[in-house]
Amino acid sequence: MVNVVITAPRGHMDSLIVKAAYEREDIRITGGIGPVGREYIGSDIGLVSGLGRSIGALVSDNLEDVINECDLVVDFSRPQLSIGFLETCRQHKKAFLCGTTGFSPEQEALFEDAADEIPVMKAANTSFVVNVMRKLLGQAAKNLGSKAKIEIIDLHSETKIDAPSGTALELAEEISEQGKHPTEEIVFHSVRAGDIPSSHKVIFGCKGEMLEISHHAYSWECYATGACDAIQYLAGQGPGLYTMDDIIQF
Ligand SMILES: NC(=O)C1=CN([C@@H]2O[C@H](COP(=O)(O)OP(=O)(O)OC[C@H]3O[C@@H](n4cnc5c(N)ncnc54)[C@H](O)[C@@H]3O)[C@@H](O)[C@H]2O)C=CC1
Ligand SMILES: O=C(O)C1=N[C@H](C(=O)O)C[C@H](O)C1
To answer: Does the keyword NAD feature in the UniProt annotation (predicted)?
Structure first.
């Protein structure tokens, strides 16, 4: 059994993680974290998240108050908040699963530092299918080498803050590593319109032909399911920086 604190339980992503985690027999939610001053601080996370029932775990406005009851903190929020939660986890020797995107290079480095002391997973996309896509892209890049010009298009709702998406950056990293393709030569395009849940399209433009590999999420449950798989994996690990690659075996 893994005991978890879930940050931002009113957030789009973390509210779905509360629902998915509640249905898992191997995960127990022990608390949540919300912003200072919100009317729901002190309320049950099941009610705050929209699960529709109390589950006996309260939402606090300070991670320090609830961290001792958990093994792991799950966080899909905002970069600045995530960095604060990472530091609290490091101080209390708790595992940290972070799905937030949009970190600066300096913030990324803090994850590496903390991973010397605690288990940390940073995953811009926890969908199993997106991670299959990442592997396929690596394979395509390896085979096409310099024959292809690569462009990545990410489409999201108009409320998404960061661009390119964290997923687009991780896909580019795989293409670059596997295809020995300089990352600077990969071109990114970001569309932010309406309520598009999330789509990623990668185009390998060749001479006289093109290859296109795309993923479309119709809802966000796929990310919440993957986050629960990541919780279970990370709980059994020692200090280190992990990714979805570690839990998905092909
Ligand atoms: N890794 C993955 O598979 C996925 C990652 N994401 C990423 O997750 C992040 C969150 O996305 P959304 O859920 O759409 O955002 P959202 O805006 O719905 O949720 C953010 C939440 O943070 C809360 N918050 C603000 N201040 C806080 C504080 N001091 N303490 C606790 N909570 C606080 C807000 O109240 C809000 O509920 C983004 O970076 C997004 O890119 C989104 C989907 C999938
Ligand atoms: O809608 C979002 O926000 C998402 N963020 C992640 C990202 O930046 O890649 C994952 C997914 O694309 C949804």
So the answer is: yes
